Amino acid sequence: MNKILIVDDEKNQRELISYILQKESYITQSSATAEEALNIIKNDEIDVLITDLKLPKMDGIQLLKEVSNISPETSVIIITGHGSIDSAVYAIKNGAFDYITKPLKKEQIILVTKKAIERTNLLKERKFLVSRISSKEAFEGMIGEHPLFKNVIKLILKIAPLDSTVLITGESGTGKEMVARAIHNISPRKNHPFIPVNCAALPENLIESELFGYLPGAFTGAIGRKKGIFEAASKGTIFLDEISEIPIQTQVKLLRFLQNKEIYPLGATTPTHVDVRIIAASNVDLEERIKNGKFRADLYYRLNIFSIKLPALRERSSDIPLLANYFLEKYRNLAQRENKFYTSGAIKKMLDYEWPGNIRELESVVQKAIILSDDEEINEDIISTILKIDSPLTHKNIETTNNAIKDRKTLEEIEKDLIIEALNKTGWNMSKASRILGITYRTLQYRLGKYGIKKPSDIP
Ligand SMILES: Nc1ncnc2c1ncn2[C@@H]1O[C@H](COP(=O)(O)OP(=O)(O)OP(=O)(O)O)[C@@H](O)[C@H]1O
Ligand SMILES: [Mg+2]
Fold first, then answer.
1. Which ligand is nearest to the CA of 329?
2. In a domain, 136, yes or no
3. Is the CB of 363 under 6 A from ligand 1?
């Protein structure tokens, strides 16, 4: 049903227009001031706004400008006296749909309103189609039915078009990067770059030149001008993952950007204006970091304008079977036999488990189960075996990897640590260890030689 809002400080005029339109079976509402009208439009869907130009405080033109911002689909009709056609023309240049002149004529009101409704319906339909197409693509592969997850989707839809900074929080593996991509992909920036930056992985002395770029001679070895990620992402989105790990002095520069949209490439004395949206993510409690003096409160408030908290998998456990089946389908080709299925015991095992590594962990357990199960059935035992040998290790993996990143270990050192852990965990059973590590038996043997890892003499 189409809704019409009539704004006029003269009661008679309001009532007359309402009466005429109600007789045409439209739903009408009316208000005496522009301020009240704006409130109605913010909270309700109004298809056509009919407003007088002269109103007590905020006038009709100002109202028109506000409405075209907050509700571009609403068609605005201006009421004007014969003496003020000029202002009606001005209103049309500013986005009004049409105007009607006083003294009001019934036929004119009905005709102009009908056309305005047609325009609004067309715009609404187009908006619906566009949002359906783009969000369908953006949410592809994002699985979940639980209310907590649906709420996340709702928030994404609300926040995406607003161009504001977003902070995504949630445990490791809960889908933070996936959500950031979805926001970008349904935002007006979708045809421009989306650049993820892992703040924990960038060495402290490189982070600023990576982000902001540098001018020739900014430091020894800075030969040419190098554009940083901020300029490379122009008109797009930068995803600052593990934002908690940004050094304090870089936090100041990031804050400056969020306030002025300006950056200083290293060595520059004048700022460069850049147009990028920032989406940040953290799996640690930033407020705790603020208390410890590791994170600036002012930066936190700037980043946290909108925040999305991703639920842990165990909080939305009703989605576990759905996700497990989705991954089974996704990795079907890993197996010799195509028709794998879970027994109810297997599903129960998965439901009972805590999933410290969340969706990422579930995904990897399913991959392993597909490979380990010899026949079509993936049963409870297979899942238990994987979880038993795997779960302390998964915990450990996350810890090891996080610590390793902090200690700035090399990839080879991390790999060596993980191999030793897997071997210890499995009592030096090479085939089990290689399965956990996701490498072949031969590769494992090769790596043992490469890193000079030897079986301790006390293990049989
Ligand atoms: N709702 C979902 N449906 C299906 N797959 C998902 C969903 N959410 C996340 N995933 C998958 O889980 C894995 C982890 O997601 P993602 O990398 O976005 O998490 P994250 O929170 O950034 O993790 P980390 O903290 O470890 O960086 C990815 O492979 C992703 O495709
Ligand atoms: Mg991530």
1. 1
2. no
3. yes
**Residues 291 and 382 placed together within one structural domain of the fold:** no
Considering the domain architecture, whether residues 158 and 290 belong to the same structural domain is answered as yes
Atom of ligand 1 nearest to the CA of 177: 18
- Which of 102, 130, 158 is the endpoint of a domain? 130
Ligand 1 site, residue 146, Cβ cutoff 6 A: no
Does residue 415 or residue 132 have the better pLDDT?
Answer: 415
**Which residue has a Cα nearest atom 13 of ligand 1?**
360
Ligand 1 centre to CA of 363 (Å) is 9
Q: What is the number of the ligand 1 atom nearest to the C-alpha of 281?
A: 22
Phi, psi of 83 (to 5 degrees): -75, -10
Q: Are 157 and 186 in contact (CB under 8 A)?
A: yes
pLDDT of residue 133 exceeding 80: no
Domain that holds residue 374: 314-451
Residues with Cβ–ion distance below 5 A, ligand 2: 177
User: ω into residue 392 within 30 of 0, thus cis?
Assistant: no
Tell which of 285, 309, 333 closes a domain.
Answer: 309
Structure tokens at 54: 């002269």
pLDDT digits (tens, 9 = 90+) for 327-338: 999 888 877 666
User: Does the beta carbon of 359 sit less than 6 angstroms from any atom of ligand 1?
Assistant: yes
Q: Please write the tens of the pLDDT for every residue from 163-185.
A: 889 999 999 999 999 999 999 99
Q: Per the confidence metrics, is the pTM higher than 0.70?
A: no
- What's the whole-number average pLDDT of the chain? 88
Strands (E) across 199-287 are located at: 213-214, 226-227, 237-241, 262-263, 272-273, 277-282
Q: How many domains, the chain?
A: 3
Q: Ligand 2: distance of its center to the CA of 451 in Å? A: 29
Residue 117 covered by a domain: yes
> Is 138 within a domain?
no
User: Measuring from atom 18 of ligand 1, which residue has the nearest CA?
Assistant: 175
pLDDT tens digits for range 268-299: 999 999 999 999 999 989 999 999 999 999 99
Q: Relative to the alpha carbon of 197, which ligand is closest?
A: 2
CA-based nearest residue to 355, from 91, 133, 171: 171
Planar angle of CA 247, 249, 254, nearest 5 degrees? 90
Tokens 């996701």 belong to: 438
What pLDDT was estimated at residue 392? Answer: 47
